[in-house]
Write a structure and sequence with these properties.
The complex is a heterotrimer of chains A (418), B (312) and C (270).
Chain A (H helix, E strand, L loop, with lengths): L1 E7 L2 E10 L1 H16 L4 E5 L3 E4 L1 H16 L3 E5 L3 H9 L37 E7 L7 E6 L14 E4 L4 E8 L3 H7 L1 E6 L2 E4 L9 E4 L7 E11 L4 E7 L6 E2 H12 L3 E12 L2 E4 L18 H4 E3 L9 E9 L19 E9 L11 H11 L4 E5 L13 E14 L6
Parallel strand pairs in A: 2-3, 2-4, 3-5, 7-22
Antiparallel strand pairs in A: 1-2, 6-14, 7-13, 8-13, 9-10, 9-13, 10-11, 11-12, 14-22, 15-22, 16-19, 16-22, 17-18, 17-21, 19-20, 20-21
Chain B lengths: L1 H26 L6 H18 L4 H24 L5 H20 L3 E3 L8 H11 L4 E4 L2 E4 H25 L2 H11 L1 H6 L4 H27 L1 E3 L6 H16 L4 H24 L7 H14 L1 H12 L5
Antiparallel strand pairs in B: 1-4, 2-3
Chain C lengths: L1 E10 L7 E11 L4 E6 L5 H9 L6 E6 L2 E2 L5 H4 L3 E4 L13 H8 L14 H12 L18 H12 L6 E5 L7 H18 L3 E4 L3 H6 L3 E6 L2 E6 L1 H6 L2 H16 L2 H7 L5
Parallel strand pairs in C: 3-8, 3-9, 6-7, 7-8
Antiparallel strand pairs in C: 1-2, 1-4, 4-5, 9-10
Helix pairs in contact in C: 3-5, 5-6
Classes of the chains: A alpha+beta (418), B mainly alpha (312), C alpha/beta (270).
Chain lengths: 418, 312, 270
């Protein structure tokens, strides 16, 4: 079977020539999945060259239909020969046929739709194609705070660990655990929380994060040693993908978009995107176990405490990133580390990794999308994102291919705001 | 006819050498150069003891013990002091040259009018033949003394061959064979492969010395030079034997080595008869072994075609 | 019961080629415990097994097996207690000797070998019986040189030999690694069968995560001459191949976390 794809402004046509049977069904499905992953959600199968359609072939058509529908897209068969129409009718799947769309064939193919929305004043979105959608909420900055305020590498004062409620309105990241008492010391680990869904590392050295999802009355709570959090609806969503150069977008570019979109000097951003590669660290051992007189931050002892991704990891998967970034002076008590390559930027970002699934196009809502994500699959990894700016050897920034970046202007207060 | 009988007698005597070398070279896969020295050691020891009036049996036995000591020394040099295989043999062989001179006191000991191992059988034959000096064998008159010698060495070789065959099939013999082929495996089965090697070399050189002792008694002298080139002759015999019988079972290898030696001696006797200069003998032998080592596949194929060999 | 205490071994000490192959191994293996050793190439797995088997004497540390302190025992003496199967199918048998002869060697592993006839009819029948249980049809080929068999058949026989007399400890060093997938699976099943039936204490080096998860009671991971993971008891029960892959990943990442990384990353943790 031979597959040829042509992009039109409003759809992607896949022309299949040959037999669509058990031997080729998987191949066809892979091709349509790739198209969806690349952002083409309106799919058409040009069936004029099909010589044979078996039941396995029909199954792959239905599956494509289902997957396109899942991202609010569509999948139709056009220019089907009579025997195909008959076959589909007899098996009751003629809803897949679009008999009236034959006429559109005369359109001129266009490689890409132009960006629909104006970019924020003067900012040109270098390297990316963006659509910026305001989300309607008030654009007053959200109040953001630093809770717990653990001095990294010092002994954790368990009494100073605070409880943080992680409701649907709250966006947070930091070091915490659902545990209590002695458990607390042994189980502190990185976490992030968006839309009432919290992913956290159990702090016992295991790589797989655990997670808590708020439902109905249940609001997840963590005891945190240190956390950044902000509460309230986000103001914009930026849909992004690489421009024609095709090179992946690093987190600095995305935060730049957030700054430009909100016009603020401090932002909270939630990124949900296909990963090109993440660079990060995670606590290998609960920092609650750091002894008073030890020197955990010295090499090589630090390797007992922190695990480094070592290379750009999880390419092709889906990341949920929570980031707090600022270019202004922080109030008393709030601490965010500076980016090595841009000393005027302070960024703290955690990422949870999920198996890839396509996102619908357009202005999607943050909380429901994230809740669907957690309902669909468990997070596979959780990283504190870092920049590795070593000359030559450095892995650079974490980078992404396409997805959504919700953002909100924030204002840090020196209160802790539990 | 004397020629044939002589070839057979020397053939049987050197079969003992070949059997000894079968143990070291083939079973233990140890390239043991001691042979050149220990065959002379056997000859010189036996000769000196005979001259001093020892009984031939005792003299021969002591010669064997001396040979086994030489073999053990080589083995110990290799296993305890980690001297390379060839070098440890060379060391012993070189040392043995002086030792042999010391034992004999000069470079040659003639054995005139001393009793030999063949005396007993000779008496027996005489008695059977009614006191004749020569016996009629297929129309040829053969001196009884020669026949007796042949008979003696034949019995010796047969006894050694049978004993060796059975020994190799005992528990001890089996592990010695295994140790030669795969020392790692032998150790894993609890065998001290180093001790096996020393033991094997001792037995091997005892047989070689036995050959030396008999050779001295047959030739009627012991000479410090007599060992030179013996190793290569032994090797040639083994190679011919393998071509004749294949090398699968220990029994066949033993028979092969004996047959190989005799065939080799016959070929040499014939060659000498045709006018080969005895001085060239060692060159020819060396060339033969060279061919056999360098062209093994060619040789093997030829052997298989001619003898229907049984290599798998 | 195998007890290893602070075992170290350095090859070529004091030279530029120095390799610290074992850096203080402590390991207790209970009677009847079947443990797998996994780890990256060069992590010291074979060196550990060789040290236990006595291929060389360790630099420091002690070894105790079945109540004997075997630290100074030479290899062949340890064979009275230890059965071994090697990675190379050629290493465990004598190729030119017959199947029966090879096996009869194993019937006296570590015992005095006298001048008794090795292959009596009775022994031969017993050998044929045990070989029949392998269901490889080898019982009819007892007289064939073992070198004519396939690698899988040889490994199965080597395994049979190593366990003919019940060893206090069975050492398996990647004993299926040189086999095709089907033979490897066969030998793996046979291994599990024998170890379970005879309740053997065993150490098995393997690079197959699947084998490591399916066969043993305990999984030990080595890295740079140290034991870095030890899955036993409950942890062993829940371990899956993914967890082992993660463990591999962890040690690899740890190696990539060098001082230059620490320099650039630690300020981002302040
Ligand atoms: N006999 C030896 N002489 C010198 N160095 C050795 C020797 N045996 C092992 N080494 C070295 O010791 C280190 C550990 O080797 P070892 O064979 O134990 O690794 P391994 O874990 O078995 O690896 P693999 O999975 O490749 O079998 C390696 O760096 C190796 O080069
Ligand atoms: Mg190894």
């Amino acid at each position: 079977m031979k597959l040829t794809t042509t992009a039109y402004p409003d759809r992607l046509e896949i022309k299949a020539e040959g037999r669509l049977d058990a031997a080729w069904a998987e191949h066809f499905l892979e091709a349509t999945r790739r198209a969806v992953r690349e952002g083409h959600h309106q799919l058409r199968l040009d069936a004029s060259g099909l010589e044979y359609l078996s039941s396995a072939g029909i199954r792959s058509l239905l599956q494509t239909h289902r997957e396109a529908a899942a991202v609010q897209g569509s999948f139709k068969i056009i220019r089907a020969a009579d025997f195909i129409v008959q076959t589909l009718r007899m098996s009751g799947f003629d809803s897949l046929l679009a008999l009236d769309e034959g006429a559109v064939a005369t359109d001129n193919p266009a490689p890409k739709a132009p960006a629909k929305h104006a970019k924020a004043g003067g900012w040109t979105a270098p390297g990316m194609d963006v659509e910026i959608h305001p989300l309607g909420g008030a654009s007053a900055p959200l109040r953001a705070a630093n809770l717990g305020r653990w001095q990294t590498w010092s002994r954790v004062n368990l009494a100073a660990c605070r409880e943080l409620e992680l409701g649907a309105e709250r966006t947070a990241l930091g070091i915490g655990t659902p545990g209590q008492g002695d458990d607390l010391a042994a189980h502190l680990g990185d976490f992030l929380s968006v839309g009432g869904c919290t992913a956290y590392l159990p702090g016992d050295g295991s790589e797989a994060p655990d997670y808590l999802v708020g439902t109905g009355q249940f609001v997840p709570k963590l005891r945190v040693a240190d956390a950044l959090h902000a509460t309230g609806p986000f103001s914009h969503v930026v849909r992004f993908q690489p421009d024609d150069s095709g090179s992946a977008l690093n987190i600095e570019q995305l935060l730049d978009a957030a700054f430009a979109t909100t016009g603020a000097r401090s932002v909270a951003a939630v990124i949900l995107a296909e990963i090109d590669g993440l660079v990060g660290m995670a606590w290998a051992k609960s920092p609650g176990l750091i002894a008073a007189d030890s020197k955990p931050a010295e090499f090589p002892a630090v390797r007992e405490w922190l695990s480094f991704s070592g290379e750009r990891v999880h390419g092709g998967d889906l990341a949920l990133v929570v980031a707090f970034a600022t270019t202004e002076a922080l109030p008393q008590g709030v601490s965010i580390p500076a980016l090595p390559s841009r000393k005027d930027w302070r960024v703290h970002a955690h990422a949870a990794v999920f198996p890839f699934r396509p996102l619908p196009n357009g202005p999607i809502e943050m909380a429901p999308t994230v809740q669907q994500l957690f309902a669909g699959a468990a997070p596979q990894a959780l990283l504190h994102l870092v920049e590795d700016d070593r000359p030559a050897l450095g892995l650079g920034h974490s980078a992404f291919i396409r997805g959504a970046c919700w953002c909100a202007p924030i204002q840090f207060t020196s209160e802790e705001l539990s | 006819m004397t020629l044939v009988i002589g070839a057979f007698t020397i053939g049987f005597i050197l079969s003992l050498l070949a059997l000894g070398m079968l143990i070291s070279f083939r079973i233990q896969r140890y390239c043991d150069i001691t042979v050149d020295g220990s065959i002379t050691l056997g000859a010189s020891t036996a000769a000196v003891l005979l001259v001093h009036g020892w009984s031939p049996w005792a003299a021969t036995l002591v010669a064997c013990l001396a040979g086994s000591a030489a073999g053990a020394v080589t083995g110990l040099l290799h296993t305890k002091f980690r001297i390379q295989e060839l070098l440890s043999g060379i060391l012993t062989m070189t040392a043995l040259y002086s030792i042999n001179l010391r034992v004999m006191g000069r470079s040659n000991v003639p054995l005139l009018d001393v009793p030999t191992l063949a005396d007993g059988p000779e008496k027996l034959l005489r008695k059977l033949a009614g006191g004749a000096e020569a016996l009629n064998v297929a129309g040829w008159a053969v001196p009884t003394r020669d026949l007796a010698m042949l008979l003696t060495v034949f019995v010796a070789v047969a006894a050694v061959a049978i004993a060796l065959r059975f020994f190799l099939l005992t528990h001890l013999g089996t592990i010695i064979r295994a140790a030669g082929e795969n020392a790692q495996m032998a150790r894993a089965q609890g065998a001290d492969d180093k001790r096996m090697l020393v033991f094997g070399l001792a037995v091997s050189n005892a047989l070689v010395a036995l050959a030396g002792a008999m050779l001295a008694q047959y030739q009627g002298f012991a000479d410090v030079q007599m060992g030179i080139g013996m190793m290569v002759w032994g090797l040639a015999s083994i190679i011919i034997g393998e071509a004749l019988t294949g090398k699968c079972s220990p029994g066949m290898a033993i028979v092969g080595a004996i047959m190989g030696t005799i065939l080799f001696r016959l070929l040499i006797a014939i060659a000498l008869r045709w006018g080969l200069d005895p001085n060239d003998l060692k060159l020819v032998t060396a060339a033969f072994v060279f061919a056999a080592l360098v062209l093994p596949s060619w040789f093997g194929r030829l052997g298989r075609r001619i003898f229907g060999g049984r290599h798998a | 019961m195998l007890k290893i205490r602070s075992l170290t071994k350095t090859f070529f000490p004091g030279t530029p080629n120095e390799v610290r192959a074992l850096r203080g191994i402590d390991l207790d293996l209970a009677d009847g415990c079947f443990a797998a050793i996994i780890g990256t190439n060069g992590s010291g797995k074979s060196t550990l097994l060789n040290a236990v088997a006595g291929t060389f004497l360790p630099d420091t540390g002690t070894l105790e097996l079945d109540g004997h302190t075997i630290t100074d025992w030479p290899e062949h003496r340890r064979a009275t207690l230890v059965g071994r199967v090697f990675q190379n199918p050629f290493a465990g048998t004598a190729a030119e000797m017959s199947i029966a002869e090879n096996i009869v060697l194993a019937t006296r592993r570590g015992q005095p070998r006298g001048l008794g006839f090795a292959l009596s009819h009775k022994t031969r029948d017993e050998i044929a019986d045990r070989i029949r249980s392998l269901k490889m049809g080898l019982e009819d080929r007892l007289e064939n040189p073992i070198g004519t068999l396939s690698g899988g058949q040889r490994q199965a026989l080597t395994l049979l030999m190593a366990t003919w007399l019940r060893p206090k400890l069975l050492l398996l060093d990647e004993h299926t690694a040189a086999l095709d997938p089907k033979s490897a699976a066969q030998v793996a099943v046979l291994t599990k069968e024998i170890v379970t039936r005879e309740k053997l204490t065993a150490l098995m080096v393997t690079h197959s995560m699947q084998q490591a998860v399916q066969l043993p009671d305990r999984i030990i991971m080595m890295h740079h001459g140290n034991i870095v993971e030890d899955y036993s008891g409950e942890r062993r029960a829940r371990v899956r191949t993914d967890d082992l892959m993660h463990a591999f990943d962890r040690v690899r990442r740890r190696d990539l976390f060098d001082s230059t990384v620490a320099e650039t990353v630690l300020p981002q943790y302040a």
